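Supplementary Note 3. Input sequence used for the single-chain structure prediction.
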Amino acid sequence: MVWRRSMAMLCCLILMGVSITKADTLKLTSLLWPPYSGPLLVEQGASIAVVRAALKVMGHQLEVDFYPWSRTVKLASMAHSDYLGYFPEYYYETENFIFSKSIGVSPLGLVEQKAHPMNWNVIEDLNRYTLGVVKDYVNIQAVDSMVLSGVQPIEAVTSDEHNIKKVAAGRIDAAVMDVNVSHYLLKQKSLQPLADKLQINRHILANKQLYIAFRNTDEGRRWRDTFDQGLAQIDVEKVIEAALYNQH
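The predicted structure, written as discrete structure tokens, is reproduced below.
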């Protein structure tokens, strides 16, 4: 009987250990980028809703802290940081991070004045215009390459909100911006008066996939694989649709 009780206790402890292991919390950084991410958004945004749902399927939890974009990336890249990655991010070539499967799509467009739409057909035509970009954001390779070579006039600011105001005031011709972000921002009280003046240019630059960028370590790879398994078990589009519908 003593032996049986001991074995029963051992089994309970083992099961408790498994449970504790499964209840691990993944810590990531993110930014204020509504409707995809933000501390005051419903479910903290559409991208965060997807990541949380995928981790929940695998028995894990998500903890997100929000910072300005540059700090978001820097904190996730530090070797002794508690953060194992950051999101949402576009894919880019790097040795510091590995990327999850796609957590959604970011339609990248150009916010312009309705009264002064830009006329362009190939990407090089944009060189005739001054574009607003957000500092340290990755856009599309063709545009970023033209910026680096100096042929594409740009003005860099710290936020999409600032770019919207600059377009509306005619200080720049257009701003490179996610379509869902622009729609969300132009519904906000502070920017709503500008909505009737602005539109998305008829040409979409790209439909960019969004990812979690995990630190390129053994632990980062373990979490990436675990997350991808959970992601395959949820309906990503349904989660995003519900989250976007509830944002204001």
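Residues 132 and 163 are 6 Å apart (CA to CA). The beta strands are 25-30, 61-66, 85-89, 97-99, 104-113, 131-134, 154-157, 174-178, 198-200, 206-215.
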